[in-house]
Amino acid sequence: MITYAGPMVLGFLLGFIMGSRIKLNPESELKYDASVYLIFLIVAFIVAYLLGPFPYYQDFPLADGFVAAAVGIIVGKLLLGRDRGPQELED
C-alpha cells in the first residue's frame, strides 16, 4: 500500500492557513466547543469518502487531501485563530 504525501501536505497547509484566519466576533455569541470540531470531522470524512481517492491513487477509499485540509483547519484554528482579547496594560 503506497501513500502519497503530496496531496496530504498541500491540503494540510492550505487548511492550516484557512483555519488561522478564523476569528471570533464577540458580538455573535458563537462558541467553538468540542462538539463542533467532532461534527466537522465526521462531515469531512463523509464528504471525503463520497469524493473518493484522486484518480490513479488507490491507497485509501478517501480523498486524503480533503481530510488533511479539514484537520489543518482545526489545527490552524486552535493554534493561531484564537482571539486573545485586549491585553491589559501594565503601569
Task: Walk me through this protein's architecture.
With 91 residues, this protein is an all-alpha fold. The chain has a domain at 30-81. The protein contains 3 helices and no strands. Helix 1 packs parallel to helix 3 and helix 2 (34-51) packs antiparallel against helix 3. The chain is elongated. The termini are far apart. The model has no long low-confidence stretch (mean pLDDT 78).
Identify the notable features of this structure and list them briefly:
single chain, 91 residues, mainly alpha, elongated
Main β-sheet description: none
Quickly give the structural class: mainly alpha
Count of helical segments? 3
Query: Beta fraction of the residues?
Result: under 5%
Assembly annotation? single chain
End-to-end separation: 61 Å
Low-confidence stretches: none
Would you tell me the overall average pLDDT?
Answer: 78
Cα-based radius of gyration, to the nearest Å: 17 Å
The H-and-E topology, N to C, reads as HHH
Helical amount: 55-70%
Strand segment tally: 0
**Mass-distribution shape:** elongated
Explain the layout of strands and helices.
Elements: H1 5-20, H2 34-51, H3 64-80
Protein name: Energy-converting hydrogenase B subunit J
Transmembrane segments: 6-24, 36-56, 62-80
Keywords: Membrane, Transmembrane, Transmembrane helix
